[in-house]
Amino acid sequence: MKQILENTGTTYLNHVKNDMPHRFNNIDIDMLTLKNYKEELPESLAEQVEIFIPPSGSFDDAILRRYITLIKEFELEDPNSNMTLANRLRLAFVDMKPDTICSRFPNADLPLKRRLRCVAEYLIRAGEFDKMRDKNGKLIKKRGVLGKMVVIYEPLPKMLSILQKQRLVPNE
Fold it and tell me: Is the pLDDT of residue 127 over 80?
């Protein structure tokens, strides 16, 4: 089955279920601790949380479990859209052009935009997105729909390869 996405007008294959949640299949989140996270989490997730683990980070066991639960939810299918929130964000940026979440989701309500920003942070740590910065390392922002300054996100090549692996976009 093919689906036309509103924001881009491009056709994408949408016949295969999302395969990203498999990373969470064998994780007993309730048993996860700062001491065992490297053994219990897949390597890619362990690398994502490592910066939050003491001494450099401030996670404790409860915060680690809450964080893993949140990112698991980002990769689970939303019953309203039949797509994960992470994939909705990935597909909104499939043209690989930097932009704001507000521009890519102009009709989204504020709670959804907040969740999408959280997903964007997750995708940054996963190496799929980055925030645009000037030559001095300062964030580049532009005025959003509500008049506030908002961050410009830049999709990275890994994001496209994730979509291709899930067969949400054709391999080129």
Answer: yes
The per-residue pLDDT for range 53-62, each reduced to its tens digit, is 998 889 999 9
pTM for this predicted structure? 0.66
Give the DSSP letter string of the chain. -EEE-TTT--EEE--S---GGGGGTT--GGG--TTTHHHHS-HHHHHHHHTTSTTTS---HHHHHHHHHHHHHHTSEETTTTEEHHHHHHHHTTT---B-HHHH-TT--HHHHHHHHHHHHHHHHTTSEEE-B-TTSPBPEEE-TTS-EEEPEEE-HHHHHHHHHTTSS---
